[in-house]
Amino acid sequence: MSSNTQTITCKPFHTLTPHELYDLLRLRSEVFVVEQTCVFLDLDNKDQHCHHLLLYQGDVLAATARLVPPGLYYPEISVGRIVTSPASRGTGLGKQLVATAIAECYRLFGPGPIRIGAQLYARRFYESFGFVQSGEVYDEDGIDHIEMIKA
After folding, report:
1. What is the pTM for the complete model shown?
2. Within 13 Å and on the Cβ side, how many CA atoms surround 34?
3. Residue 60: which domain range?
């Protein structure tokens, strides 16, 4: 693949290739554990029940998100583990990731509200997609978070 080719894939966990699984776990670890210096267990036994959105730039995973069916984490549909690689930030890829995640949630799970647990600093970013804060600020692994919902 050439380095400027973009590939977007959305698939259930059991159909991920070993390379795709490695790429998504590595990117989540790079950002959530190393960059944000959070010691937490990313592998929470929910991935196996979710769809995974993968945005590749060439053969490098640049962004990923976990699409969570209703009832698994929240009563509503949810999007979690939203992450863009440090090298891809500021390129609009995060906006593309979230917009695609929302569309894929509706395609997979039907219409309905979508709930997220967002890092507080990203509130305005998620508000631009129609999410509104639905709870108080809470600490998760040393980072301020808020629950947000898109009706």
Report:
1. 0.92
2. 9
3. 6-111
